[in-house]
Amino acid sequence: MRILAAILCSSLLALASHAQNFSDVKPAPAQTAWQDLEIGVIIHFSTNTFLNREWGDGTASPSTFNPTNVDTDQWMQAAKSGGAKYAVLVAKHHDGFALFPSAHTDYSVKASPWLNGKGDLVRLASDSAHKAGLGFGVYLSPWDRHDPRYADPVAYDKYDLSQLTELASHYGPLTEFWLDGAGSAGRTYDFDKIVQELRTYQPNTQVFADVALYKNADIRWVGSEDGTVPYENWNVIDRTGYLRWRPIEADTPLRKRHWFWHPADESSLLSVDELLNIYTKTVGRGAQLMLGLAPDNTGRLPESDAARLREFGEAVQRIYGSDKNLVARTPHILNETSASAAVDNNPATFWSAPTRHATLELRFARPITFDRALTMEWLNEGQHVQEYSIEVWQNGAWKTLAHAQAIGHKKIDIFPATTTQRVRLNLLSTTGSAAIREFQLFNGASAK
Length: 448
Fold this sequence. Notes:
Blueprint: H1 2-19, H2 29-35, E1 39-43, H3 47-51, H4 72-81, E2 86-92, H5 121-131, E3 135-140, H6 153-170, E4 176-178, H7 191-201, E5 206-209, E6 219-221, E7 236-239, E8 242-245, E9 248-253, H8 272-281, E10 288-293, H9 303-320, H10 326-329, E11 332-334, E12 351-352, E13 358-377, E14 385-394, E15 397-404, E16 411-430, E17 435-442
Helix pairs in contact: 4-5, 4-9, 6-7, 8-9
């Protein structure tokens, strides 16, 4: 029995040790599917829209909310033109005003004059998103500055759970569920119970939360609201010894520092160049880009915002469209024929590279000029590239254009324009066999 116990103990220790290895932590299928969406939008529209402010204190009358021309189809079409694949609606912000006719409070659209109290903005947004081919998600603030039950954690948690159930069970599949920790200092929520309830109705939704707010969420916040990832992006996060696959979502408003609409605010609208820079530093660093959209007090997204989204989407396609990939349209010779899946312009296929170190060399029939490379890693079995470089053959030697650690879902490296006939992706260090979905080259300067 002592021998059996010793063997069992040894096995458990081995399993525990194995579980703490970053490279062994793998994503759930819903997580990799979510990462492939790459761009989403989060929509802020509530009483704050009519009061020219960002933060409500819960005292605004429901009569404040009275848009005259709500057009959720326009919201979603604008988002789609910007490259978004899903939309998250702020169903209840910190002021406690619900955009759906909750049966558990009178502080909602049912007490407003909009559509004579018969409106349901979550229903409209959900239907429009699905009609546009977008995923749909909701944001439900844990903090409620209006409801008196908030002072009683037990009573409030029951109320919050009831609203979560309404949102999770009445509006179709949810791509993402947002948990925001603002205003929650000193307050402990039973997030395990909340997410357990959510999973009853939405087993595949991705739960977003700050790492410090809830350790079992599926997605994590980048740490700022400027839409950049300022560090090497590893999908596995360590919370004091607890490892979990939690890809990054980097959020930033389309109008600088403004999540809600404000009058006379045109100067805050991000330019196309600013958006492209944000794209490079989010999607191009293996993260999700979440752009904040703000319909105006009529209920439509301002035309300037819709136009800017369209311009941004067109600019991304002009640079990174599949027809712009120099590798796909130019004859080349591979040093390994098995690597053809990495250069077939199809992210659904991948090259299983040799373990620990591998190179993918392309030889072109004639010189090409490019100023950026896009590399994608197949993550279903974990993130395995730990160091890589992109190199060109010049003057009888290999010259490094880019050198970094993580590739992850997608990595965009930008460098001075280079002309050559030989290029290679050099996987300098991998854990096991890395899988490369795509290695692409583009000339962004020529697309402007």
